[in-house]
Structures are given as structure tokens and as C-alpha cells.
Design a protein that fits this description.
With about 400 residues, the chain is mostly helical. The protein has 3 domains: about 100 residues, Orthogonal Bundle (DNA polymerase, domain 1), CATH 1.10.150; about 100 residues, DNA polymerase, domain 1 (Orthogonal Bundle); about 170 residues, Intergrase catalytic core (hpI Integrase, Chain A), CATH 1.10.443. Helix content is about 50%, strand content about 5%. Strands 5-6-7 form a 3-stranded antiparallel sheet. Strands 1-4 form a two-stranded antiparallel ribbon. The chain has a two-stranded antiparallel sheet with strand order 2-3.
């Protein structure tokens, strides 16, 4: 029997834990406290563990047999008493006990030994090693190729030599009817990559990539979404820098607004990426690209203030972490939420509210201040000059100089 009195976490009414998990509940509470959970949250989670321990003992179930299925049975047993967060607590407890080697580790993931599974593994290695694509991109490519091959061959043998342009066209048309134009374009890009891979490996005789027409995107049809400089400053002033959340959000917004970082690049920033002596920051861009950028004084000052006064002590090396448990690095969605919340506080309602809004705003502002497209492309780390050319559309003074007179005369 264990009475839950774990260091800083002492229940106002001590809870008894009996049974299979009694000797581990104190360590679990200490783990939660180290992850930054509030005392009340720790008590709630430990109460769940105590209930699970009693249930296991009452059923005569061995601790060695505790797994996801057993936890699901426990959830079903106490469905009337379930609380929000119980499912996450169950996953945490299993991971904690596996870390202590108290319960068996998860079995290795099932390896698809079918011809389709083997082909997809070969293609995955090609994308990672030869193309150098990011993990998220590879996952997306594999999902599209798996769907195409499954629809094309079903449970039959993969007769790749039988593939014809019409098979690719039919799949793209089916996808285009159910997804956005952007995703349809990604589907074409993926299939081109896949059939080139097949051709290089000798699996098909012809390169079918040329038979796939591009999906019309009209990339020049819209102006880049941007905020004027005065709105950017209003956005930054909306952060309450007297609070840890405001200090963190202000540093994030400055990185987005002054350096034009992508949301994923802010999320990936680690403590080791900031070179304080040289005044530089290492940016982990798309794929394997790592580039150094100068650290402006105001951005560096905001980072120092955040690290000294707002960032909680935790094991992760990520610069920006959750302010509440678990103390892990932020997700990309959290970075976007920082921008959306700041826009709401500042009373701004642009059509686009993601982290990329500040990147576009920086490029537009620099162009109007006289920076060249090459300089902007260098700062934003564009691989292709055509990516930067979209900003030429916002340089209205330059466009007026090349505009032809209207044939209808003055209006």
C-alpha cells in the first residue's frame, strides 16, 4: 500500500494505492512533476493510476499482461467515471512502465512482406537517400503511391509493365474530383517521381512521366498576402510581455517578422543553433538544408529575455517549449496559433492568418524599400528565382513604368 505524498505533490486528502502499481505510483508522480504538470493534474493522473491498480488486483490480472487492450478494457469498465485526458494518461502510464521494463515492450511494427510493401520500401529509400526529401513529404508520397497501386491492381500481382498513360490520367482525374487543386498537383508530382523511379530501376520500359500533364495552378493569379509595417508593429505590441506566454510569443513573432522564418523553422530551432558570439542563428530549412542568418539585435534581445525569464527548465533542447506539461517542443500548429492569437488581440483580420503571413509581409516591405528580388530570395532562402518573382507583382511603381497605355484613352 502506498500513500501518495510525492515531494512537491502532496494531496490534501492522501490517496491510497493498493495492488499491482502501488510501488510505482510515486515515481510516476515524480516523472509528471518533472515534465511540468501542475499539482492538480498530477493528482488527477495518479488517482487514475490508483484506480487502475485496484482494478487489476480485483480481477487477478498480472501486471506483466498490462497493455493497450487491457487499458481499453479498464476505460470501458469505468466509462461512467471517465474524464477528459484519461486516454492520454493511459498511454503515458504504459510508456512509463515500459521505460522501467516493468511490462513488455511493444512488439516490432509489422513489416509488409507483400510485393506492394517491398516496392514501397524501395521507393521510400530512394526518396530519402537520393532525393533527400523531408520525412513528412515522404509519408505523403507513399500514401498517394499506395492508393494508386491499390486501385490499379487490387489484390492481383503488380504487373508494372502493364501501366499505361491512361491509368495515370484516370487516377489523377479521380483524385482531382475529391481534393483541392493544390493536392491534385501534388498527386501529379508524386506519380511523376514514382514512374521515373520505376524507369530508372528497369521495372518499366518507358518513362511515363512525360505523359502526365501539370494541374493548372495559376500561381501568378493572386497577390502575396501581407501586412503593412504598422500592422506588424501593432501585432508585436499585442503580446503581454509581463507574462511568460507573452515573452515567448513575442520572440516567436520577431523571428517570423524580422528573419522571415517559416513556422517549421521556428519550431525546429534548438539551443545549439544560436551562436551568441557571432550573432548568428542556424536555420534548419526544408529537407537537409541548414543555413546561417545574422541575428538582429531586437530578435537576440527578445530571445535572451525569453530564455532567462520565461522558458521553463526541461530536458528538451528546443528553444520554444510548452509552458504547461508535458514540457516538450512546440508543434508547428502551435506556432501558427501564436500568430492567430496575436492577430485577434491586435484587432486584425487578414484573409490569411498562418505563420507564412509574416514571411510574405517581410518580403513585400523589403521590396518597397528598394531591395532587389535576388536579395529577398537570399534572405528567404528560396531555391529557385521563380519562387521570389511572385513579389514583383506588389511593386506597383515599377509595374506602372512598363504598363502599356489603355487603348480606350483616359477614363
Amino acid at each position: 500500500m502506498t500513500i501518495l505524498r510525492t515531494g512537491a505533490v502532496t494531496a490534501s486528502t492522501p490517496r491510497l494505492c493498493v495492488g499491482r502499481l502501488a510501488s510505482y505510483i510515486d515515481r510516476f508522480a515524480g516523472f509528471l512533476t518533472g515534465e511540468g504538470y501542475a499539482s492538480e493534474t498530477v493528482r488527477t493522473k495518479c488517482a487514475w493510476v490508483a484506480a487502475l491498480s485496484y482494478w487489476l488486483t480485483h480481477r487477478g490480472s498480472s501486471l506483466a499482461r498490462l497493455d493497450e487492450a487491457r487499458v481499453a478494457q479498464f476505460h470501458a469498465h469505468r466509462r461512467d467515471a471517465r474524464r477528459r485526458g484519461d486516454v492520454a494518461t493511459g498511454r503515458q502510464v504504459l510508456a512509463f512502465l515500459r521505460g522501467l521494463r516493468v511490462i513488455p515492450s511493444l512488439p516490432p511494427p509489422h513489416i509488409d512482406r507483400s510485393a506492394l510493401g517491398q516496392l514501397l520500401r524501395h521507393y521510400e529509400r530512394f526518396l530519402r537517400s537520393e532525393r533527400g526529401l523531408a520525412r513528412s513529404t515522404v509519408v505523403g508520397y507513399l500514401a498517394i503511391v499506395r492508393r494508386f497501386l491499390t486501385e490499379q491492381f487490387g489484390s492481383k500481382a503488380l504487373r508494372l509493365q502493364d501501366l499505361r498513360p491512361r491509368d495515370l490520367h484516370r487516377f489523377v482525374l479521380r483524385e482531382a474530383r475529391r481534393v483541392s487543386r493544390t493536392h491534385a498537383g501534388t498527386t501529379v508530382t508524386t506519380l511523376r517521381s514514382f514512374v521515373r523511379f520505376l524507369h530508372q530501376r528497369g521495372a518499366i520500359d518507358r518513362d511515363l512521366a512525360a505523359a502526365l500533364p501539370a494541374v493548372a495552378q495559376w500561381r501568378w493569379a493572386h497577390l502575396p498576402k501581407a501586412l503593412p509595417p504598422e500592422h506588424i508593429e501593432r501585432l508585436l505590441r499585442s503580446c503581454d510581455r509581463r507574462t511568460p506566454a507573452g515573452v515567448r510569443d513575442y520572440a516567436i513573432l520577431l523571428l517570423l517578422a524580422r528573419l522571415g522564418l517559416r513556422g517549421g523553422e521556428v519550431r525546429a530551432l534548438t539551443l545549439d543553433d544560436v551562436d551568441w558570439e557571432r550573432g548568428e542563428v542556424l536555420v534548419r530549412g526544408k529537407g537537409p538544408r541548414h543555413e546561417r542568418l545574422p541575428l538582429p539585435t531586437d530578435v537576440g534581445t527578445a530571445l535572451v529575455h525569453y530564455l532567462e525569464h520565461a522558458r521553463p527548465a526541461c530536458a528538451t533542447r528546443h528553444v520554444f517549449v510548452r509552458l504547461h506539461g508535458p514540457r516538450h517542443g512546440l508543434r508547428l500548429s502551435a506556432v501558427c496559433c501564436v500568430v492567430r492569437r496575436a492577430l485577434h488581440r491586435a484587432g486584425l483580420n487578414p484573409a490569411f492568418k498562418g505563420a507564412h503571413l509574416l514571411r510574405h509581409s517581410l518580403a513585400t516591405h523589403l521590396l518597397r524599400r528598394g531591395a532587389s528580388l535576388d536579395e529577398i530570395g537570399y534572405l528567404l532562402r528560396h531555391r529557385q528565382p521563380t519562387t521570389t518573382q511572385i513579389y514583383a507583382k506588389v511593386d506597383l511603381d515599377a509595374l506602372r513604368g512598363i504598363a502599356l497605355p489603355w487603348m480606350g484613352g483616359a477614363s
